[in-house]
Amino acid sequence: MELNDALGLVIKELRQQRNLPQEVLGPSQSYISAIERGKWKPSLAKIEQIAAILSVHPASLLILAYMKQAQAKDADQVLSSIQAEVAHLRST
């Protein structure tokens, strides 16, 4: 699964869990539909906007998308890896 497809599915699932229509997330229903189907790549600014409307951190959308892409089931393992990597990068 491509990352854009995974991100689109994550956005769609969270939007549906919150009973929100596509129009709430962006300038038009067709725009959000294209993102949810993995046809368009949202900018970082758009990811931040969508995350704010969904009441989640933008990094959560990306982490969930990477987990879905890799079919990873254990969020703790993914987050531990990211935490260690960030700590290492900050210390250099």
SSE order and pairing:
Elements lengths: L2 H15 L11 H8 L7 H11 L3 H13 L4 H17 L1
Helix pairs in contact: 1-4
Short description:
The protein is mainly alpha-helical.
Explain how this protein is built.
The chain is mostly helical and 92 residues long. The chain has one domain (3-91): Orthogonal Bundle (434 Repressor (Amino-terminal Domain)), CATH 1.10.260. It is built from five helices and no strands. The chain has helices at 3-17, 29-36, 44-54, 58-70, 75-91. The longest helix is centred in the last third of the chain and has 17 residues, at 75-91. The radius of gyration is 14 Å and the shape is elongated. It starts with a helix and ends with a helix. The mean pLDDT is 93.
Q: How many structural domains can be distinguished in the coordinates?
A: 1
Contiguous uncertain segments of 5+ residues = none
CATH fold-type name: 434 Repressor (Amino-terminal Domain)
Find the count of extended strands (DSSP E, 2+ residues).
0
**Gross morphology:** elongated
Radius of gyration: 14 Å
Q: What are the secondary-structure elements, in order, as H or E?
A: HHHHH
- Class in CATH? Mainly Alpha
Sheet with the most strands? none
